[in-house]
Amino acid sequence: VLSATLVGNAFANEELTALSADAKNWAMPTGDYANHRYSKLNQITKDNVKDLQVKWTFSTGVLRGHEGGPLVIGDVMYVHTPFPNNVYALDLNNDGKILWKYEPRQDPNVIGIMCCDTVNRGVAYGDGKIILNQADTTVVALDAKTGKVVWSVKNGEHIDGSKAESSTGAPMVVKDKVLIGISGAEYGVRGWMAAYNLKDGKLAWKAYSTGPDTEMLVDPEKTTHLGKPIGPDSGIKTWEGEEWKTGGGTTWGWYSYDPKLNLIYYGTANPGSWNPVQRPGDNRWSMTLMARDVDTGMAKWFYQMTPHDEWDYDGVNENILVDAMQINGQPRDVLVHFDRNGFAYTLDRATGELLVAKKYDPTVNWATEVVMDPASDQYGRPQVVAKYSTEQNGEDVNSTGVCPAALGTKDQQPAAYSPKTGLFYVPTNHVCMDYEPYKVSYTAGQAYVGATVSMYPTPESHGGMGNFIAWDAAKGEIVWSKPEKFSVWSGALVTDGDVVFYGTLEGYIVAVNMEGKELYRFKTPSGIIGNINTYEHGGKQYIAVLSGVGGWAGIGLAGGLLSPENAAAWHGAVDQGRQQGDEAQVVGTAGLGAVGGYAGLAEYTTLGGQLTVFGLPD
Amino acid sequence: VLSATLVGNAFANEELTALSADAKNWAMPTGDYANHRYSKLNQITKDNVKDLQVKWTFSTGVLRGHEGGPLVIGDVMYVHTPFPNNVYALDLNNDGKILWKYEPRQDPNVIGIMCCDTVNRGVAYGDGKIILNQADTTVVALDAKTGKVVWSVKNGEHIDGSKAESSTGAPMVVKDKVLIGISGAEYGVRGWMAAYNLKDGKLAWKAYSTGPDTEMLVDPEKTTHLGKPIGPDSGIKTWEGEEWKTGGGTTWGWYSYDPKLNLIYYGTANPGSWNPVQRPGDNRWSMTLMARDVDTGMAKWFYQMTPHDEWDYDGVNENILVDAMQINGQPRDVLVHFDRNGFAYTLDRATGELLVAKKYDPTVNWATEVVMDPASDQYGRPQVVAKYSTEQNGEDVNSTGVCPAALGTKDQQPAAYSPKTGLFYVPTNHVCMDYEPYKVSYTAGQAYVGATVSMYPTPESHGGMGNFIAWDAAKGEIVWSKPEKFSVWSGALVTDGDVVFYGTLEGYIVAVNMEGKELYRFKTPSGIIGNINTYEHGGKQYIAVLSGVGGWAGIGLAGGLLSPENAAAWHGAVDQGRQQGDEAQVVGTAGLGAVGGYAGLAEYTTLGGQLTVFGLPD
Ligand SMILES: O=C(O)c1cc(C(=O)O)c2c(n1)C(=O)C(=O)c1cc(C(=O)O)[nH]c1-2
Ligand SMILES: O=C(O)c1cc(C(=O)O)c2c(n1)C(=O)C(=O)c1cc(C(=O)O)[nH]c1-2
User: Fold this and answer.
1) Cα(A567)–Cα(B30) distance, rounded to whole angstroms?
2) Chains A and B: how many Cβ contacts under 8 Å?
3) Dihedral sign (CA A470, A473, A479, A482)
4) Pocket of ligand 2 contains residue B273 by CB under 6 Å
5) B57 touching A, CB under 8 A?
6) Model ipTM over 0.85
């Protein structure tokens, strides 16, 4: 008899499943298919973590925002960089000697159409290949041993000058396929998820986030939303006119996979244009969690967190899969999702049933609650507070004091889950905004934004722009919260040694115990927006992290937008001629509003691109 | 009665002398006026250096070759970068928080006329100001407290398109002046040394290396060469026609100062054009050590190490001043100079008398010896071996197997001197070359090279491209020699803890004991070409070093010249149309011959720009 797990393995990519089950490796960008970012390694413990030392370091040779983290498979570490997306294979047996490097050639024009820095969230491994998702949407499979190109395919069709499609997401290898998303919702890109054959790079399926049912790979009768069929042409009817064609709903975040259900999970980004007045309707299926059959791409269920977005609360954050979570006395196989909109959702991942939806920052104010009564016509919908409704306030009106800011209570920085504590460890933002939508017109290849945003630390709070929290997803409660000066833009790691790690925008790697007490802090060369991981080599546990300030929060530094000239040029490219006030406002509202909010970061760190590997004293 | 030392202090810049006498600081790029790079700090010793840990790190935000090192004055560290020559003031009391940063705007065209990477060897301190010598030859004085510009002056006249003057050297503050050199001997720049008033940046004096006596600030009767007056117009008569006008002799290396004698010391670079056939004569005063009165610039004595250079053996390396060295039973106040040409010279620094001239790598083969008999007409001259004479072999003939290569047995990487052992600790190259001179014509602003060079590890030796050696300058003997895989392109540091530190091109910081036994090795993010220094803060000794591979040895990586296209473009700009053979030759001979020789470096490191600070465990 095959156990459930073995059946799962048999269906999944067995090699990869086995590699990632061995805690010595860090074989997937997400650690495992469930996105736990939990490691069974326990040499480094809450008691000895204070003794951590830097063991070795590696400069990536590239500056700007370094998201994601290295893979470790056996004796080799694979390190990726932001644009131009170089990949290095480093020999762990030989002080990180470079076994091979891959330096793609890409049209640098793609830099200009990347909304939130030239980031890349990592390479994936499968079947002896390293899969790289380049900024210019080229997907390349490299021979893991030699770095030679095995196949190469173009996922997006066009960059600058036509459709402004770009890519930043980490691929996920599942079974015989590679899952790849797309970026560009700030440019009116109509998002999709694609699956390519791992073997030869041939397109297996492609599922759009908006548009006709056939192109969305939905069955209007069988694909459900909150338990009900979505009905025909939902991706067209919930938009005015042809707005769905520039409908956003890109897929630049993290993906998960449940081998038992054979479903993949991911979220879609904001609807095209940040001016809600311009696109009446629920704008389906932007801002939506999607569960799809990995073989066919057919959608099982959707859940739209923020219908008709008015704040840029992309729904792309990771979905963490937990089995048998006790909810109201029942064990449920769930998916936990910390949305940009400030609500943390727990759903039944087989059916998409909404189990919990609670604020994971009490200062979230744009909505009062998510309605949990299935009988209500508001079921599953956030209850918007009129004062903070940028749509109700209308075009050319500045809605002030909206919490969270556009970059959400959490953005791409992934949380970690410990099966030992049953808790989630969540890097968060603690930032509010003013948001003024205005009319824009769509031109292919150009920015399609239509809002002026400024950001600032949550008023009347601790003054900082972030918290690192522990969350109980069954109850929907914050267990503890540790304030940070800036948003925690790095991904967390939790280990069997009862330590939680995260990085800060100033560049500190921080270790805390299960009660949130700080145990260790070390300043790496540049701000950390990478995801911390761990591996074992030669019998010793290591902690690895990429430094390199950037991402949306760090775009002022990474994109040079703290300079008034560059900020003005940025507005020139984005604002369609709208006046932006004095120099301070021009700088403050550049980078989609992040530059002013995070300007203080320039006192703590500067651009970098380094790997730092920590270990215990010998 | 004033002691000699106090008289010295009174004449020198008292504040700076006091600051650099306090071992807690590292107040000058050279450590002290004598260029000892020796520290009295002794918490870190030969016994505990093995326990060193990385204490903090800082990314400079800039890639390519990071030469020089940070200054430490009290609670503030000043970090500089290669082009664009940013300067950071970091708060040592606050985890390296950025107190201020200065980001100059420079014409990026200067990058194209920097022969040997976009390096900068450091900022100087004096009178509350930080002096920055920018690539574009702008010299800026910044308020050390605020980073605000106090004064700014242009040292060179022109960059790209006219005279191709650039700058890389570290300024030296002496008394009320700032000494500043110039780069560009590969572009026919006529070199000079300039002194600017520390107070307001006004030019105090300017002394050319070639040309009329008045412009050279020499007295034909009083300025001596090997004890004899140099005679009138030596800087013109030793050249054919007007070649002295494009005569090189730039001053991009290190400077020293003797407060008692009130003399500054520095060397001049190669004569313009690497094709010796084109410039008959001794080409004075290229390749020359110069002793000048700091107040007036008037030359006291010269010593030309390599008359009529045929190999690009620039004479710019540091001059290390040692008092009362016992030579043949006599105490002599000497200057010790490890020349590119492979000879280490000990001279009386008051008179320029030649005391010792010996090979500091036994494989040096281009000359048999330097004649030491004052009665000989060859006195002080190296005896050239015909086989390795690129002049005698003639234009369009490839002289093979010349040792050392053009980058010398030592290049800019400064040695250290321990008064405790009386020995010099010297980072060296162990590289030979093939050199084929060819006819070139001078065009202002364009490369004026005229030789194709390839480099390789010294044949029939240990296979590596470098050694780290201990040298007895009284006897002219190697005491010990430690082989290294690549040239040791970083500056050394020796301490009262009986430890010598250096960095390697692979990125290791290495500590050895006084017998050359390795005690500690740690791999920093990128290749080290910076100079290691030490300071004390909060009662603890630290070791600081900049990583960032580049310089001439690392130009393949730093300038991207390992790519055939870029290598071909490099030749296009430098070779005046000469054919360079197949792709391998085009790459190998790019970067003035360094690219092929150091190609293997790409397996060990990649571009970076990081400060790493080490200390003992708490
Ligand atoms: O809508 C999109 O297509 C898109 C793409 C990206 C991206 O690819 O990085 C981001 C966003 N949106 C976005 O809304 C956002 O907050 C964001 C943050 C970051 C980052 O890496 O820090 N990227 C992105
Ligand atoms: O003749 C010159 O003007 C000049 C300038 C420089 C420089 O400014 O860096 C170098 C050289 N020459 C040179 O010959 C040389 O070997 C060299 C090495 C380096 C370096 O920083 O690694 N610079 C220079």
Assistant:
1) 40
2) 97
3) positive
4) no
5) yes
6) yes
